[in-house]
Structures are given as structure tokens and as C-alpha cells.
# Entry
Amino acid sequence: MERLAKIFKRFSELEAQKSSPLYAYWSKEIAEDRELLTLMQSIPGSQPKPNMFFASVQYLAFKKNHPLKSYYSIFDRSENYLEASFFTLKEFVRLNEEALVECFQTKLVQTNELNRSSYLYPIFSEIAHKTEKPLTLIEIGTSAGLLLNLDHYKYEIKETEQILHFGDFESSVVVYAENIGKSLTAIKPFEVSERVGIDLNIVDLNKEEDYEWMQALIWPEQKDRKELLRKVSQLNKNISKKLYAGDFLQLIPSFIKNIDDGTQVIIFHTHVANQFNESLKINLLTMINNMSEQHPIYHVYNNMFDRHLHIDYITHSKTEEKKIIKEIDGHGKHYVWE
# Structure
């Protein structure tokens, strides 16, 4: 119980304080509330408890049309307002404890950070124009596969003396980010031949339940992210891709066997490998080495051995380090291009 209290106290002070006053207040109160902390023990150890609890509450509050849902659209920071919101939260939990536990047991904290495409697009552009080939994109930990659509988004990247525009200028989905490193140059459009995503749990945004859950994972005050998800879910319907649920060590080699030699394969994953044990990391690199005997592969990744973003080129089991980007915001809002 004491460990749970510390988790929510830390979440309040370090994670939610600047981004979500509502969740920061609720977390602070939960840390002192034995009844709610007891409920949190129903959340699987593999899931971040504050994120799972708040997403489940938001998801069910809208589904059940409970008065609690009003607190997700009115952002009053006064003490009286926040006290009233927590009282309503407690009432909601008492009425819906069974449904909350079902969410804890059946859903996952699983988001697509669309802004990570702000640095992946320039990387993939460089690869496409260096190899002079269309790209075959294979993403590990794809969730809903939204990063596989990155060539269908418009980008506005702030730099020291200018704002760079690239991508699909007609797109309704606009990705904003800031580059505080070397200037991005010669970012050209590229062709994607095939898009493949693999995850243990695929999110299908065409399903109402999956879409509503993804919306619930976004914090209340992040209205722009909620609107962006709405727009991208519409665009996503018209982009062909293959999404597979299962073990990437088995699925990727079976797919690579039939790959077109006229395309350049990129295997990528962002903020996923921190969930891999050492054995799985070694098996991933061994798999890529083995496949590189037949097809040269670019591997774009972070969180394998450090937090940096690595761009490696592997052919005939030999790895060449092409680029390392050492400073990247976890949500892709800013980075230091090198």
C-alpha cells in the first residue's frame, strides 16, 4: 500500500503537475486514500497504475454518461472545484468498481505518439534518397499503426531562424515539433511500398471501442492531442497496411521471405525495447543479422542499450552505425538533430 501511495504521489508531482492539474490533484488525493489504493491493487503489475486508472475512469465516465465527465472539459484550477471533482470521482468509483476492475484486466496502456514521426520522417527521407528505392516499413510495437502513415502527414518544424514545412501539404493531420540542433536540410518526399506493423495487441481505430479507449488514454487538458487523434483516425481508414498480432521474431522473417528486392527494408521501434529483456534484445539483433544475408536492412531504434536514437545499416551480418541522435523528447515534441 505504501509503495502504491508513493507511485501516485510521484505521478502528481513529477508527471501530471504541469500537464494535467486535474490528474495531479486526483493523484495527490489518491495517495492518501486507502479505499482507492486498495482498488489499485487490481491493476496488473505490467501496467502503469495511474495511467490505467485514469484512462479507465475517463472511458467509463463517458460511456455511462456520468456527471464526472463534465470535469474533462472545464479546467478550473480553484481548490473548491478540484475538491468537488475528487468527491465526484469517489462517488463514480463506488458505483462502478466492478466495471473498472474489468477495464484493468482487459485493456492496456498503449498509445501512438504521433509526434515521433517528426524525426522519423527526415530519417526515412535520407534513407530513401540514399538508396534510391521505395521503402518497406516494418514497425515493432505498432499499436494502431499510426507511425506507418508518416508520409501522409504535414510537418511544421520550428528551428532557430525558420519554420520548415515538409510532408503531405494537403494533409488534415499537422505534426508540430521543434528542432534545436543542426538544421534539417533536403527533406524530400519518399515512396512507401509496404507498411507492416506488429504488436502483441493491435489497436483497430475503426472499432468504436478501441477508438474511445485511445481517446481516454489522452489526458483531459490535452485537447489538441484528442483532436489530432480524431483527424488521424479518419485518414488512417484510407491507408493500406498490414497489422499483425503476435511475436515479431516469428512474423518478421516470414514476411521478409517474400519481400520485393526493389525496396529498402526499415525495421523500426521507438520507446518499445525498454520492455524487452536482454535475451529478447539479442534475439532481435540476431534475427536482423540473419535476414541481412538476403536483404540489406536499416534498423532505427532507441531504448535497446541507451536512450539515444540509433540508425544502423546491416548487410551480410555486418552493422554500420549511420547516425545517433542523442537528445529526443519522449513524445517527439522536440529533438536535437545531429
Notes: The mean pLDDT is 93. The first strand starts at residue 135 and ends at 140. Residues 2-106 form one domain. The chain has two domains: 2-106, 114-335.
